[in-house]
Amino acid sequence: MTPARSSLLGDLDVDITLDAPLGAMTWYGIGGRADLLACPRSDKALIDLVTRCRINDTPVRVLGGGANLLVDDGGVDGVVIKLDHEHFRRVRYTARGDITAAAMGAGADLFRLVQDTRRRGLRGFEMMAGIPGTAGGAVRMNAGGAWGQMSDALRTITLLTHDGTVQTLNSADLDFRYRGSDLPSGIIMECTLSLQEDDPIRVRERVMKIFQHKRSTQPMADHSAGCAFRNPVDRDTGRHLSAGALIDQAGLKGRRIGGAMVSDQHANFVVTEPGASASDVRRLIDDIRSLVQERMGVTMEPEIVVWKRSEVP
Q1: DSSP string, 140-187
Q2: pLDDT tens digits for range 46-82
Q3: In Å, what is the CA distance from 299 to each residue of 113, 202, 233, 256?
Q4: What is the model's pTM?
C-alpha cells in the first residue's frame, strides 16, 4: 500500500504505521515488513476501517499475538490490523451464582488471562496455561492441548464480517473441533467465557502443573511458533496421532536448514537461531512434510500460518 492510499484511512480513529516491522512482532521475530499496520482505537474505528478497505478492494489481515505466525521475508501488502489498543484488551467479569462470565476483547493476552482467572479463583481456563497469543487468535484456531481447548470455556463470539456487519454467535452452534470450527470468515472483536468459582489455591495448582509439564517437555525458551504441525488423524482408528512422535520416529530431531532446526527437546517445534530467515523455516517445514510422508506414510498439515505478499489467508 502506498502512502497516497494510506491517506484513505487518515480520518479514522486508527493509529497507522507505514512499512511496519511485522516479522519482529511475531514469536519467531523474523520475516519481512507490512506495507501498512493499522491499530483501531474502538469498535467503530475497526468497522469503518474494514468497510473502507472493502470499498477500495484492499486486502486485510489480522495480527494477534504472532504466536503461530511466520511472515515471509518479502513482507505483506494490504492492511494488517492489530487489535492491541486498550479497548480490545479489556476484560469484564460478571458473576451469577457460582458461574462467572468473562467478556474479553480479541486482543486480550492469554498469559494474563490465565493469571487473572487464577487469582480470582475461576476454574475453566487452566488448559490455556503456557499457550501464547491473544483471545481472538485462540478462538479462531481453537487453540489448546492435552488439557483442553479454547472452546471448552467459550460461550459467545462477536464477529465483524468483511462487509461491515457485526454478529453475536453462540459457540455451541459452531461445531468447534480440534484446531477448527464452522466459525465464519471475519474479524473476532470479542468473546465471552463461562467459568466456575473455585478455591484459588486449587486453580493455581492446576495452572502450575500444566505450565511445569510444558516447560519440561517443550522448548519454551527458544524462538518458535509453537507446534509446527497439527496432529494427523489415523485413517484406521480415527484417532489423532502425535505429530511430534511421527517426526521423531522419522529421525528428524536436530535436522536443520540454515538457521532453522527441528528441536531436540520436542520434534514438533521448529526453532531458530540468530541469523535465521523465514525462508529457512519454510524450507525446513516443507522438508519435514516430505520426509514424514516418505518414511512414515503420513501426510502432515502445518499449524504455523504463513503470510506472504499477494496471498491473503
Answers
A1: HHT-EETTEEGGGTEEEEEEE-TTS-EEEEEGGGS--BTTB--PPSSE
A2: 999 999 999 999 999 999 999 999 999 999 999 999 9
A3: 35, 40, 9, 20
A4: 0.92
In this structure, the dihedral spanned by the alpha carbons of residues 183, 185, 187 and 188, taken in order and rounded to 10 degrees, is: 0
Let me know how long the chain is.
Answer: 313
Q: Which of 52, 123, 282, 303 is catalytic?
A: 303
- The answer to whether 67 and 225 have CB atoms below 8 angstroms apart is yes
Spot the catalytic one: 179, 206, 255, 283: 179
Active site residue 303: yes
CATH code, residues 219-313 = 3.90.78.10
The matching CATH number, chosen from 3.40.50.10400, 3.40.50.1110, 3.30.230.10, 3.30.465.10, for 91-217 is 3.30.465.10
Range 3-82 classified under CATH 3.40.50.150:
no
Cell, residue 161: 464480517
Q: Is 282 a catalytic residue?
A: no
Domain with CATH 3.30.465.10 in the chain: 91-217
